[in-house]
């Protein structure tokens, strides 16, 4: 019997071992070839690059000398290293020596789901929206089984290519934060366009410049609420609460109000799933495992969903 394996499996990992476990995933920054910028997120910029082949390089912006953010970054990397699922972006390694912090993943093919649902040329019938949702739900169920919360689930963090769905950028919210870098003393909330409609009521209620990012009550249930917003988006082909001021959105979600679903043209079975995900009380929202069953039970139909013309004008920047 291999006693070293036995001890590793049966005794808790010491805190000092964290750096040892991360060493095998540490990529020297100078080994990366950074190409064109292909995206920009809350956490920083994404570049097309090369490291033993094509990769996506996410350069992480954190406040200089912020040890808490650096620790949060390394905690997230510890979680990423064990993720392997067809609907989750492949983690390949990270640069963990300040000032060069980066996460290196496989390069996602296709387009963001945000772009797909706003493309008037793309037909989204009920069968296709269900298939996309099922892929997302399987990926999110896997992350939750691994103890990983996404915290920033939205269509811009989901890639779609010929029926394949890949979830990206899970866990990065804690690193990037809800406040503009350097603006905490100015008491400014960082509220990107379309962000609020993905936040569950229990998070909306805690939003303030004084609240630390890692103190916001993100949970498996809040990820489900955010999935509900994507489910809405797949059918309405736009975010809910479109063009409403942030203060109005905060008040509506915080008080449990829902947008008018009649204008989206979605049937009862579809809206029932949405309302479950958007339940005001956390314990009334289904798990992603339960959502697998609910989506499977949806009746198959051969019809094209309505696509209001005024939604077509939206385009991803």
TrEMBL record:
<dbReference type="InterPro" id="IPR000719">
    <property type="entry name" value="Prot_kinase_dom"/>
</dbReference>
<dbReference type="InterPro" id="IPR011009">
    <property type="entry name" value="Kinase-like_dom_sf"/>
</dbReference>
<dbReference type="GO" id="GO:0007265">
    <property type="term" value="P:Ras protein signal transduction"/>
</dbReference>
<protein>
    <submittedName>
        <fullName>Kinase suppressor of Ras 2-like</fullName>
    </submittedName>
</protein>
<dbReference type="InterPro" id="IPR001245">
    <property type="entry name" value="Ser-Thr/Tyr_kinase_cat_dom"/>
</dbReference>
<feature type="domain" description="Protein kinase">
    <location>
        <begin position="32"/>
        <end position="298"/>
    </location>
</feature>
<keyword id="KW-0547">Nucleotide-binding</keyword>
<keyword id="KW-0418">Kinase</keyword>
<dbReference type="GO" id="GO:0005524">
    <property type="term" value="F:ATP binding"/>
</dbReference>
<dbReference type="GO" id="GO:0005737">
    <property type="term" value="C:cytoplasm"/>
</dbReference>
<dbReference type="InterPro" id="IPR050167">
    <property type="entry name" value="Ser_Thr_protein_kinase"/>
</dbReference>
<keyword id="KW-0808">Transferase</keyword>
<keyword id="KW-0067">ATP-binding</keyword>
<dbReference type="Pfam" id="PF07714">
    <property type="entry name" value="PK_Tyr_Ser-Thr"/>
</dbReference>
<dbReference type="InterPro" id="IPR008271">
    <property type="entry name" value="Ser/Thr_kinase_AS"/>
</dbReference>
<dbReference type="GO" id="GO:0019722">
    <property type="term" value="P:calcium-mediated signaling"/>
</dbReference>
<dbReference type="GO" id="GO:0004674">
    <property type="term" value="F:protein serine/threonine kinase activity"/>
</dbReference>
